[in-house]
Amino acid sequence: MKAKVNKGTKKRFGFVLITAMVLVGLGLYKQHTPATYDSSSDGSEIVEEQQQTIPPDVAAHIEQEKLLANSSPSPVLGVQTNQTAFPIPTSVHVPILMYHYVEYVQDKNDTTRISLNTTPYTLESEIKTLADAGYTFMTNRELTDVFDGKAQLPPKPVLLTFDDGYRDFYTDAYPILKKYQAKATQYVISGFLGYRNHLLKGQLQEIAQDGLVEIGAHTVHHVWLKGQLLKTVANEIFQSKIALEQLIGKPVVSFAYPFGAFDQQAREAVRNVGFGSALSTIAGIEQKEENKYFLYRLRPGGRTGKALLAWLENQK
What we know:
Blueprint: H1 2-5, H2 9-26, H3 56-71, E1 80-81, E2 84-85, E3 91-93, E4 96-99, E5 101-102, H4 111-116, E6 117-118, H5 120-132, E7 136-138, H6 140-147, E8 157-164, H7 167-180, E9 184-188, H8 201-210, E10 213-217, H9 230-248, E11 254-256, H10 264-272, E12 277-283, E13 286-288, E14 295-297, H11 305-313
Parallel strand pairs: 4-8, 5-6, 7-8, 8-9, 9-10, 11-12, 12-14
Antiparallel strand pairs: 1-2, 3-13
Helix pairs in contact: 5-7, 5-11, 9-10
């Protein structure tokens, strides 16, 4: 894999050019120049809401894996960690909440931004509600450790995940997380760092070194991965991991699919380059070993207090 993605500037430029051409053909972006591009400003993020089913090729592959497992049964053992083995669960009840912007939107005509936004007041209310109700905040890496038999699931687990690496995460969301010592995972578009509305590299490094927030990858250019050429998919996934690891000096082991769009090829690419898990935008709360590479997420929708707790209790 390294040999393919490091053959020189000319080939890397070719990958980016191919990606841009495909995206323009799909009509997903009005403009794809990092200096001016905002991955939610043109409404393209809204298509996440349409990605609510497991792709047929992924479902078929999972069924094949089950048949193979049943034909040659073997005991499921935990992974030894400090002389302790934990059983590997087949299913866990864990809400993974999804956020994008966290700010007070100034342009009231920007309906797309408003639809994807959570105000700082609402985010703090949600976090306080969960903390007061006894929920345990986890990172995605910690949830992956549970599936890998390296750890046990804490009482009332919940994950807070933020997509795209917007700058308001540093200015508005991060202080709230620190106030409540609430762990979270931020999924960063590596190629957009330092550009319009996105985190500065120094801000990301500060967040990563603090240790409260896990940094995950969200491709290099926020590319629709479903149905793409393999070399485009592999380049976007692998290079985002490498770039972020070099910047923060830590392993990047979690991935989120842009737009929630994935297929079996993308799922395999994520696993093959060394990610331990990946997030989709499919709504759900029952996380299974078989969907470790397209974990389900929920949009809290501004609910706080008793409404938020009742809503979580009724999720399936």
